[in-house]
Write the structure tokens for this entry.
Amino acid sequence: MRVRVIAKPPLFFIPDENWEPVGVDILDDNWWKNMKMVVERDTIGPYLVSTIWLPLNHNFGFSDKPVHFETMIFDNGAKNPSEELDGYQERYTNVKEAREGHKVAKALVERLVK
């Protein structure tokens, strides 16, 4: 007999067509196969600005709002990487904030690359 343990509330989420979280059963082997993850992605000089969906709610109980979006800046081989960009990471509670945060990160990179 196979016992299925489903966390209540769910631990993992996929985004619906409007980037709203929909809880999934992690024991279902197919939940991640069609999940969209990339909200925005830009390469600027030697840097990658990436904003993605996080399947695990990253508020970790510190907020009443789920945190499912993250923007990071990656150094893709810059000869003299910027300390200002090192470890850049921001998280957001909705897709509108995430898209705005992506624009902010892009502007930061564009200012430093010029």
Q: What stands out?
A: The radius of gyration is 17 Å. Helices lie at 95-113.
